[in-house]
Design goal:
This protein is an alpha+beta fold. It has three helices and two strands, in the order ββααα.
Length: 89
């Protein structure tokens, strides 16, 4: 099963997930429960990433469907509370 996820930096990734010994109906219900919610996934091995530069059409589609609700974090930088407040106005 493939899942489209967004991390704290605003980077989208596709996860290929295997549910062992889980009926398909339970998998679908589990995924629907997590849709739109923040969650922590542990033990994930990233096999491949794509970037906006390599797949601009894909990211344009994603941005049109799910525009960022908060400023996208830049890896290695933190925002001061004043910056976050300024970005929200």
């Amino acid at each position: 099963m493939g899942l489209l996820v967004q991390d704290a930096y605003g980077i989208f990734s596709e996860l290929q997930v295997q549910f062992i010994h889980t009926p398909i109906d339970e998998m679908k219900e589990y995924c629907q429960t997590l849709e739109g919610k923040a969650c922590r996934l542990l033990g994930i091995k990233v096999l491949q990433r794509t970037t906006r530069g390599r797949a601009p059409g894909l990211f344009s589609l994603i941005d049109s469907l799910w525009p960022p609700l908060a400023p996208i974090k830049i890896h290695g930088q933190s925002q001061e509370p004043a910056q976050v407040k300024k970005n929200k106005t």
